[in-house]
Amino acid sequence: MSYIAPVKDMLFVMNELAGIEQLASLPGFEDATPETAQAVLEEAVKLCGDVIAPLNVEGDRNPSSWHNGEVKATPGFAEAFRQFAEGGWQGVQHPTDYDGQGLPKLIATACIEMLNAANLSFALCPLLTDGAIEALLTAGTEEQKQRYVPKLISGEWTGTMNLTEPQAGSDLALVRTRAEPQGDGTYRIFGTKIFITWGEHDMASNIVHLVLARTPGAPEGVKGISLFTVPKFLVNDDGSLGARNDVHCVSIEHKLGIKASPTAVLQFGDHDGAIGQLVGEENRGLEYMFIMMNAARFAVGMQGVAVSDRAYQKALAYAKERVQSRPVDGSAKQAVTIIHHPDVRRMLATMRSLTEASRALAYVAAAHSDIAHRHADAATRERHHAIYEFLVPVVKGWSTELSLEVTSLGVQVHGGMGFIEETGAAQYYRDARILTIYEGTTAIQANDLVGRKTVRDGGAVAKALLAEIGQTVEALGAHEGAAFDAMRTQLAQGQRALQSVVEYVVGNAKGDPNAVFAGSVPYLKLAGIVLGGWQMARAMLIAAGKHAEDPAFYEAKIATAQFFAQHVLPQAGALEVSIVTAKGGEGVFALAEDQF
Amino acid sequence: MSYIAPVKDMLFVMNELAGIEQLASLPGFEDATPETAQAVLEEAVKLCGDVIAPLNVEGDRNPSSWHNGEVKATPGFAEAFRQFAEGGWQGVQHPTDYDGQGLPKLIATACIEMLNAANLSFALCPLLTDGAIEALLTAGTEEQKQRYVPKLISGEWTGTMNLTEPQAGSDLALVRTRAEPQGDGTYRIFGTKIFITWGEHDMASNIVHLVLARTPGAPEGVKGISLFTVPKFLVNDDGSLGARNDVHCVSIEHKLGIKASPTAVLQFGDHDGAIGQLVGEENRGLEYMFIMMNAARFAVGMQGVAVSDRAYQKALAYAKERVQSRPVDGSAKQAVTIIHHPDVRRMLATMRSLTEASRALAYVAAAHSDIAHRHADAATRERHHAIYEFLVPVVKGWSTELSLEVTSLGVQVHGGMGFIEETGAAQYYRDARILTIYEGTTAIQANDLVGRKTVRDGGAVAKALLAEIGQTVEALGAHEGAAFDAMRTQLAQGQRALQSVVEYVVGNAKGDPNAVFAGSVPYLKLAGIVLGGWQMARAMLIAAGKHAEDPAFYEAKIATAQFFAQHVLPQAGALEVSIVTAKGGEGVFALAEDQF
């Protein structure tokens, strides 16, 4: 089966939870009405469903391949990429000044979800290009912007991020790649970069590598890293392609999943040095790279939502078709489709509710980003920026951790067939496994959440969100019935649990950093559960108000939220116990290194 | 790196938690002393570490292959199997009357753990043979036992279980394979069986298939299924091999993991019918098959423990070697090995404590099985049998679900390298994924736990175990310090949570089966967490008593238990909330089939 984008659910979140109408009142977003959003999504459905999703299995069976420094993408990918580029999809959220469409990140986020659900491997190429565009727009000179950005937006060229080296993974302080100034404004780059996604391929005529390297005499550590553009082919002043640059793909990795996306080892400067240009100021490369990283982290969070939805769709279709065993309640004498069996139903409801909650949280975050960029009032911009920054590690960390659970349940629903590769459920399980690792592992996200997003402002943003959750709990009190009762009780307990952990984190990060950071991933998961549950609660309230307009749709929203309240939110309490009450941070260090 | 069996940990569990000394007082087990156990384990270490573990990666890269109805095992497997067979390892737990060693299941369990940790794919062949031996010993005629069992124990032949058909997976009522009596005491078998592990291979001279089929006029459903022996080569009266039987391997599956173990589609009776012999009485096949299944389910639980330990060993080695980033507590100015980072430490402690808890619970279950088989007193036998029966679905379901988490953490500890196949961590992640599916999915185990193991006796066994846990909680009160405090508090809460769920299950299974079965997997996980935590608590108490004998070892036991108390046991409360307080069973059915 192919992928059918859940446009109605997406529009519900965009319209009702993320407030797209508000965005249309922001300067520059006048055209971004709900109608525009719907029209864009309906176009994206066609491309993703008809062209890109069908290549997903092929990419797994026939991965991109390396020969003599060149990489061939899976057959069909280059043509699909051409259609993607010609449709203007790379430019959805980028400025019209450089030939983008200038639409809100919220709309782009829904498109990105579709593209990734259709084909994670394929979608990685635009994902990295987006990051390169963001970095150039923020830190590049006008000349650099003009030279690169329109070509990246048109899809004639693609972009990459070159951070990792064999000895420098999560720890960029250890970067060793050198950049030697040539006196003519250019640099020659020498070094080896690994794990470069779409670092070499045949889908575009040029590849713009954004590369972290050290200039001579730069300070040690992360404060001595600069950012460079290193195109595969040098670019002449008229925009035409010049000589082949001295950057070469020496191999690609043999991976567990996302096999169609080539993961390159790039060698810079095997001959005379790869010619690069400084982006922004010397030694500020990490700062610029974080612009790319932040965009990419959010997008990887969307990959988690996307692959979860794809896995859910597949498992659901199987569960509605596969006949096995009589129902436990005696309601039929014959074997029934397995969706009637309680545990299959529980697994599907888990997959569905986690996917919906993580989608809602991510779209809401995207809307905060849009307001942070476009609102006329500086204080409003700042407030929304702070919320977006708080949410990015949660969206990245929580959505991707969920995707491991959801894709695993997807295999489980299929029973023995799930373990057979031809079924396809296993591919999602394999593909998803990178999501909690790249663009910063879950632990890196959790460190960010603790350090820069919670402790630095004394928990101010977290507490503001907690206060809003409290208002939602109150609003739930106006409604009756099992679903609202369950949500009110469980969201209130979740809110208290998150409050307790935020206070613990703020209060102890300086005094007992090991204990606090030992609880950082549990804190991130707790934040995801409570913030995601909050969105589910908001959805319930809206569904109750609009029920008569579309009873079946809104009842399903309420029922899905009820399940989340009963089966997911209770985990918040357990996480709080581990982190705070039971002093779990101590337990992490109870065993000395040599006792392991 | 290869696999180093944790013999000291295994012996600690066997001696202190499972009470091997008691077993040596049982009739027939006089030789099964702690010294014998140690000697056997030390022999097993050599075979598993030196011969079988090194083939694990090779089996993944160069899986068993099918050609023209024949299956070639991975190079090296046949020779390793010869060594396994010649060492007498197939017979460890089988009766001396048929050339087995007659040792307790407890000792065999440790050997099985090692064999599986060394190589899951390889170990599956003996695992299935064990099941065939058990079924023949229970239901076969003396002639059948003499004909097959010594050859299976010697490893000259191997055995298989043939249950599944394309339309009959979890639901054996749908089995269609036919057995037509020939009037000479034999039957001709016609049908297709799928997912037959080691159903065809070149490691032994014959394969004894145990096959479920229906005789003419048999009742519909599971009450009309009989069990047959169908050897690949017919066996002459003198034990020599006769004609090739009409059972053929038409293909093997392309799987996510355990690739070295061929998963066969077997066609019975494409020509004149495959000649088979009835085992036991007609129409009682399912009952006999459950004997095999029960043994196999326990063994699959051990596969979960085993692959978890293997993944833990690999991740630990990497974490002690990989240098990345400075410590968060400022204790070093330079990057340190990643085991110093709190979240890596937390992941390793999670892997370690889950592995130890699931091992302890399984070994304790094995000891109950031994007493159930050998004790002189019938009432004692019955009591221990009931406990063993209660624990089998928990060992199978919980240990294997854990193995998904543990092998996933194993990938995560490796960061980006974990996603590269050459690293090896991904293989455990892929291999483990079948464990929650075959020999009965987790839901099937949970149904068994609810229906036959909890509701049928009104929760009597569960409550007896809960009372014992209560005694352990009291004993913890005699000790001071953070570790004992944490365990006392969390185990007490876990015990209350399990008690509440057992009462709920017993009280509502008849009246509201959908809700109860919707909570069955959460109940199984809760039972695993609390029963596993109980074993960790027992280990702490013993460690406190023996501390002076080996301080480092016993302190590590206490610290590991502390971690389990702080990070795993709190989940018990959340599961109880989902199942009972929040009425999660209702939420599972809140969404109608057509609303999904």
From TrEMBL, chains A, B:
Q: Does the keyword Lipid metabolism apply?
A: no
Which residue numbers delimit the Acyl-CoA dehydrogenase/oxidase C-terminal domain?
283-449
Q: Where are the transmembrane segments?
A: none
* Domain Acetyl-CoA dehydrogenase-like C-terminal, first and last residues per copy: 465-581
| Reported cofactor(s) | FAD
Sorted UniProt keywords: FAD, Flavoprotein, Oxidoreductase
Which residues does the UniProt record annotate as the domain Acyl-CoA dehydrogenase/oxidase N-terminal?
A: 37-156
Keyword Flavoprotein on entry: yes
Give start and end of each Acyl-CoA oxidase/dehydrogenase middle domain: 161-270
SUPFAM superfamilies for the chain: Acyl-CoA dehydrogenase C-terminal domain-like (SSF47203), Acyl-CoA dehydrogenase NM domain-like (SSF56645)
Q: Identify its protein family.
A: Belongs to the acyl-CoA dehydrogenase family.
Supply the name of the protein. Answer: Acyl-CoA dehydrogenase
* Naturally occurring in which organism (per UniProt): Paraburkholderia kururiensis
Ranked from the top, the taxonomy reads: Bacteria, Pseudomonadati, Pseudomonadota, Betaproteobacteria, Burkholderiales
